[in-house]
Amino acid sequence: AMLLGMGLGVFIVTALSLVWTTLTQATSPFDALVAGYFELAAVGFGTTLRAHPLDVKSRIGLGLALLHLRKIDQAVHELSTARRIGLHRFPIAVWVGIERVLAVAAYEKGDHNRAIRAFESVLALYPDHAPTLYYVGLAHAAAGRRRMARELLGRAAFLGYDEATRALAALPERPERRDTRPAPEAAPDVPA
């Protein structure tokens, strides 16, 4: 869980920096967000959104502030809404960052299939992105798909992602399948 928390933090910072670079002017909620005043940022973004509910930048900012405040469900709602109402107007890197944040949030909540879908949408654009390969590998492992997990973690490790190498080494081998059913009883001899 600590590793995932650290990973979520890395994804949040990545998404935040991508959003920040797309902004044409800083506004006070964004300044609060960057400075680490997440409650203040959330209040500021909420105020802006009450007046302008289709403001995608503020919705992304609110989602990121809520993630920092560990209000995962609300953050996922805001980021998903931003994606739905207008994220297409942003550079693809912003969409990828948001999608990765949503994927990690889903993973941390235990929704491994949703996380896998989100990670795979990122991999469709960036198939050799080692951190995403790593996280989708962890999601597959958590969902019980060890063969797929090994393949993805192996790719990430091959690309030099050290965490993937450690996760691959820690992934338990699939036990050999043994037939545990009792042997069938001998059929009674029946005269023909």
Describe this structure in words.
α3 packs antiparallel against α4 (56-68). Mean pLDDT is 81; it is low at 1-6, 22-26 and 175-179. 71% of the residues lie in helices and 0% in strands. The chain is mostly helical and 192 residues long. It is elongated and about 55 Å long.
Largest sheet: number of strands, sense, barrel closure: none
Percent of residues in β-strands: under 5%
Radius of gyration: 22 Å
The number of distinct β-strands equals 0
| Category by helix and strand content | mainly alpha
N- to C-terminal separation? 66 Å
Specify the helix fraction band: over 70%
Shape: elongated
Poorly predicted sequence stretches spanning 5 or more consecutive residues: 1-6, 22-26, 175-179
- Give the averaged pLDDT, no decimals: 81
**Count of runs of 4 or more consecutive helical residues:** 10
Write a concise synopsis of the structure shown.
This protein has 192 residues and is mainly α. The protein contains 10 helices and no strands.
